[in-house]
Amino acid sequence: MIVARPYPTELLRVARKVVWYDAVERTLEDTPTFLAHLMVYGSVADVKLVEKYISLEEFRNSLGNAPAGIFMQDAWIRWHKKLGIRPIPPLPRRRFPDGSQGTRSWTVLRAIACLFGRSCASQREDQGSSSNDGAQNLRQTSVKLLTVLQRCW
């Protein structure tokens, strides 16, 4: 079920909260993108409210066609589990005109955290790597990222 205009005030409030960079009406017209942002940035109360207006099937459709760059690994796994979608696929990745794919955002972010003294702990369990392999991959990514950053400055 998709919500028609005029939109309920409470739904407008949630849309404004989770997609702060766009007009609220435009946000609600793009249900898949709205739901993807809700699944990442919405509170439990926000989700319960939206579920009164939009079916779980729409949530599943949004998750199955999620754009790259919105979900982080924890929300991606949590929502697949909540909606009973197995196996959990890898996060969506950007595709460039030449057909290549962008990097996995979690790898870059964890590498940045590693560079700044945060945890260089093992790679996530869902990747199937041993602890040492995960930590080594993060270190290698960190070194590559540091090299690129040094060239930029």
Name the features.
57% helix, 2 domains, 8 helices, 0% strand, 153 residues, single chain, mainly alpha
Structure explained in plain terms:
The structure is a single chain. This protein is an all-alpha fold. It folds into two domains: 9-82, no CATH class; 105-152. Helix content is 57%, strand content 0%. The chain contains eight helices and no strands. It has helices at 9-18, 24-29, 31-41, 44-51, 56-64, 73-82, 105-115, 131-152. Helix 3 packs across helix 5 (56-64). The longest helix is centred in the C-terminal third of the chain and has 22 residues, at 131-152. The model is unreliable at 121-130 (pLDDT under 50).
Shape: elongated
Mean pLDDT: 81
Largest sheet: none
Could you tell me how far the N terminus lies from the C terminus, measured between alpha carbons in angstroms? Answer: 51 Å
Number of domains: 2
Report the total helices. 8
Number of DSSP-assigned strands: 0
Helix content class: 55-70%
Uncertain segments: 121-130
Give the topology string: H per helix, E per strand.
HHHHHHHH
Radius of gyration, in angstroms, nearest whole number:
18 Å
| Assembly state | single chain
Strand content range = under 5%
Class by alpha and beta content:
mainly alpha
List the helices and strands and how they pair.
Layout: H1 9-18, H2 24-29, H3 31-41, H4 44-51, H5 56-64, H6 73-82, H7 105-115, H8 131-152
Helix pairs in contact: 1-3, 3-5, 7-8
